[in-house]
Amino acid sequence: MQLDAHHISASPAGLNAHALPTGTEFCSGAVNRTGINGLSQCGTLGLTTGTFHVSAVQPISYVIEEVEGLLDPDNKTLLRGVVPDSFPLGLSLNPAQPGERRLVVIDDNVYRIYGAQLRQYFSLNGVEATIVPLPTMEANKSFDLVYEVARRAEIFKLNRRKEPIIAIGGGVCLDVAGLVANLYRRNTPVIKVPTTLMAAIDASIGIKTAVNFDNRKNKLGTYCPPLGVFIDRTFLRTLDQRNISNGAAEMLKMACIKDAQLFYLLEQHAEQLRATSFQDKAASVAMRRSIQGMLEELEPNLWEHILCRLVDYGHTFSPEIEMAALQYGDELLHGEAVNIDMALTTQISYARGLISREEQARVMDIMQRFRLPMWHPVCNPDLLLKGLRDTTKARDGLQRVPLMCGIGEAVFVNDISPAEITSAAAALKSFALQTSHSSSENNNIVAAPAKIAMPV
């Protein structure tokens, strides 16, 4: 903050009314400034006018790292802490020393698989770990979980200057822990360890946190950058095939509207990626391209002040679909709801002539090969229109819907009509019902068949 000499000479009446006694000094640490030094925006003008303007900038900086063998006791990555006196809080290269502490919030399913290994990891490194397994799923993604984690943090007497919360799990777990971190002591550092494909390429790498409220998806939340994100693909080996496909939907999203090379990679390797749980070389390339593409969209728009967002592809109708399915009793995973949204908008793009019949078929072929649903019983036109209205309101009165206009390309539109939605929904429903098949793997959700016969 610089001294504005021009504004120091305020009117005698205004200045003398609050003048300090002669010889009074103000000391703050090593800084000793006498008198009033002014605000950056308006100097000392507020002394005269009574109107004060404040302007400040909060820098954002965090690290996303691929790590192999994160729970190997010889790997110290998970023990990294906070750089002392850093702003913004920085991720230290130095691991916690014996006797230091960590609070770990972990999805209970992940804990059942890795709990013993996790406890051994901290024990062998001499770090006192309080591990909190929680049932983090969409059905209970509410402030009740936030209160529970905050209560554990208070019992732990967390030192936010030195002790980051470590969150290990899928998107719900990371969202809840991130929200707690942002609220507890107004900003506690959090390290995120995604254990699902969805979390690794989407939920963990941005700064948004949220929980559901009043049967509405992610209505209460904040912006909270993590201290760091550690992605270990070996966690995906214990993920079921449905959750592998769930994450692939977000990957397909980026491919459809931004990255033609990623689209071609998914076309060539869909079955292999799914069968190997994203463990091979093609998976590494696909995940890195997904993360790169997502961050290119997020970094210049972390607070979403720009409302035309490519990453909103698949997120116009899906929030309403996902929550309705939850109430219906036939739950959709987030990526599954996103995929139904993409199938719908792909049909709209084709009907508008923005993509060819061949391009539409290629998109839906990848969806089918990843065993992703294209329809759900809750997808009636009234629900879809409500979703569009709610989204339009959230986007400040304009639809701003991204539609494909070629493989890896998109255009924003503001004029999707109820007739278009009704027509697209009817076409997809007819197609799905003609070719539906049931399996425990996709939870009896209507999906596309092996041979694509596209709706007209």
TrEMBL record:
<dbReference type="InterPro" id="IPR035872">
    <property type="entry name" value="EEVS-like"/>
</dbReference>
<dbReference type="GO" id="GO:0017000">
    <property type="term" value="P:antibiotic biosynthetic process"/>
</dbReference>
<keyword id="KW-0456">Lyase</keyword>
<dbReference type="GO" id="GO:0000166">
    <property type="term" value="F:nucleotide binding"/>
</dbReference>
<protein>
    <submittedName>
        <fullName>Dehydroquinate synthase-like protein</fullName>
    </submittedName>
</protein>
<dbReference type="InterPro" id="IPR030960">
    <property type="entry name" value="DHQS/DOIS_N"/>
</dbReference>
<dbReference type="InterPro" id="IPR050071">
    <property type="entry name" value="Dehydroquinate_synthase"/>
</dbReference>
<dbReference type="GO" id="GO:0046872">
    <property type="term" value="F:metal ion binding"/>
</dbReference>
<keyword id="KW-0547">Nucleotide-binding</keyword>
<dbReference type="Pfam" id="PF24621">
    <property type="entry name" value="DHQS_C"/>
</dbReference>
<keyword id="KW-0520">NAD</keyword>
<feature type="domain" description="3-dehydroquinate synthase N-terminal">
    <location>
        <begin position="133"/>
        <end position="245"/>
    </location>
</feature>
<keyword id="KW-0479">Metal-binding</keyword>
<dbReference type="GO" id="GO:0003856">
    <property type="term" value="F:3-dehydroquinate synthase activity"/>
</dbReference>
<dbReference type="InterPro" id="IPR056179">
    <property type="entry name" value="DHQS_C"/>
</dbReference>
<feature type="domain" description="3-dehydroquinate synthase C-terminal">
    <location>
        <begin position="247"/>
        <end position="387"/>
    </location>
</feature>
<dbReference type="Pfam" id="PF01761">
    <property type="entry name" value="DHQ_synthase"/>
</dbReference>
